Amino acid sequence: MELVAGCYEQVLFGFAARPGQPWTVTPDFTHHAHTASLSAVAVNSKYVVTGSRDESIQIYDMRKKVEHGALLQHNGTITCLEFYGTAHLLSGAEDGLICIWNTKRGHVTSLSIHPSGKLALSVGTDKTLRTWNLVEGRSAFIKNLKQNAHIIKWSPDGEKYVTVITNKVDIYKLDTASITGTITIEKRISSIRFITDSVLAIAGDDEIIRFYSCDSQKCLCEFKAHENRIKDIYSFEREGQHVIVTASSDGYIKVWNLDLNKIKNVPSLLCEVSTKARLTCLAVWLDQASEMKENCEKTATSTQANEDEKPSADKKKKVCGTNKSGKLTKQHRQIAPAKRKLEAPLQKKKKKPNSSE
Q1: Interval 19-28: pLDDT, tens
Q2: Which of 90, 112, 199, 212 could bond 195 through an S-S bridge, CB–CB 3.0 to 4.6 Å?
Q3: Low-confidence ranges of the chain (pLDDT < 50)
Q4: Secondary structure string (H, E, C) spanning 66-117
Q5: How many angstroms separate the CA atoms of 79 and 58, rounded?
Q6: How far apart are CA 244 and CA 225, in angstroms?
Q7: How far apart are CA 174 and CA 129, in angstroms?
Q8: Tell me: the pLDDT tens digits for 290-346?
Q9: Can you give the pLDDT at residue 325?
């Protein structure tokens, strides 16, 4: 048995108690997950949950002795927690709400949003593939799977999607919701990414990245990218260049250039960096505002260069004027040719000095 207790110091204590002659109590674990003092605790056959003044409920798996997650619904100190059997947890807080939580429902392992932004797909440990209507905020369809899927991904055009179950990729067509093909590799798949609407980059629990055709389900190219397991892949386009970024347990982030016209060729390494850490996930932040500014400056420079190459008589000077509404507008005024005589400036009249009386 375990004696669990919370305290003002934001820590949950666990002590193993053993009956005997005499009974013994020994420290088993401590967990510091809250940012304020603990105010409530409850247990069932598998979990310990704690409430705090930080308005969160933290869940601990007592069998595995690991943190299981958090519940964030209340806006106030959690004042009371109580399990009913193994299926439900009730919580109360200073916000006046009583929340009923389903503890049997499986957790979500992956989700993907349709390019239109109107649909989303999710998979979890309940062996279901769920379609969500994001416009109305409700579940639209539930499909039962034979096994738990851990990855789901839409294609860029939104016409197909893929699910990953261990080492197998199932390719679905949107309009029929049926499997049109399956890709299987030897190792468990850790990450996938659509390079194009019909080409998938697949990384498994090894050092290899593989490009597969969704149409033929054949491997187009494979290459060794790292010295250890590849954990995540990211891809993007910049100025017509297709770039792939990979992260691995070897601690390296690598950036690759992929020629889509020569997809069967191994991508060339652009740069790499060692983090000296075991990486688990990856994303790329693109500074689109700076890139737009850079592109505008390039365009302006190019335009100015072209203007400088034109004869002076053909140049137009841009000036600002106002329309009837009073808003500034750009106007083009033809510069007078050099041969044309310009009117002489008006002579200013000299003021006569006042005569002294």
Answers
A1: 988 999 999 9
A2: 199
A3: 312-357
A4: EEEEEECCCCCCEEEEEEECCCEEEEEECCCCEEEEECCCCCEEEEEECCCC
A5: 14
A6: 11
A7: 13
A8: 666 656 666 666 666 666 655 544 444 444 444 444 444 444 444 444 444 434 444
A9: 45
pLDDT of residue 327: 44
pLDDT at position 317 = 43
Is residue 159 within 8 A of residue 174, CB to CB? The reply is yes
HEC string of the chain equals CEEEEECCCCCEEEEEEECCCCCEEEEEEEECCCCCCEEEEEECCCEEEEEECCCCEEEEECCCCEEEEEECCCCCCEEEEEEECCCEEEEEECCCCEEEEECCCCCEEEEEECCCCCEEEEEECCCEEEEEECCCCEEEEEEECCCCCCEEEECCCCCEEEEEECCEEEEEECCCCEEEEEEECCCCEEEEEECCCCEEEEEECCCEEEEEECCCCCEEEEEECCCCCEEEEEEEEECCEEEEEEEECCCEEEEEEECHHHCCCCCEEEEEEECCCCCCCCCCCCCHHHHHHHHHHHHHHHHHHHHHHCCHHHCEEEEEEECCCCCEEEEEEECCCCCCCCCCCCCCCCCCCCCCC
Q: What is the mean pLDDT of the chain?
A: 85
**pTM of the complete model beyond 0.90:** no
Which of 38, 36, 35, 34 lies closest to 4, judged by CA?
38
pLDDT value for 322: 45
